[in-house]
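Figure 2 data, in text form.
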Amino acid sequence: PAAACLSSRIPYGTPVTRETIRTIDAGEEALRGLGFRQFRVRFHGEVVRLEIAPEEMPRALSPEMAARFVAIFKPLGFPYVTLDLEGYRQGSLNEVLSR
C-alpha cells in the first residue's frame, strides 16, 4: 500500500527530527514484519498511537498481539503504547484542526 512521508505521523507543532523519523520507521517495519498491511505509527512524544486497518483490528486486539506491540515499542522509547480503536484513517492528525 502507498505510504505518505513519515513526517506525516508527527502532530502539528512537534519538531521533526531524524531520531523521530527513524523511530517511526523502525516501528512501521516491525508492524509490517508482524503481517499487518495497512497501518500507521503516530508519534505523540511519550505515547505511540497505533492505527490498524479495521479489517485487521481483530488480530491487533488479541492479548498476544498487545504483548508484541509493547515488546516492540517500549524499547523504541515509548513508555505508553496505545491502539487507536477507530483504526487506520488517512489524515487522522488533521482531526484536531477542526476543533
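Caption note: The longest strand covers residues 39-44.
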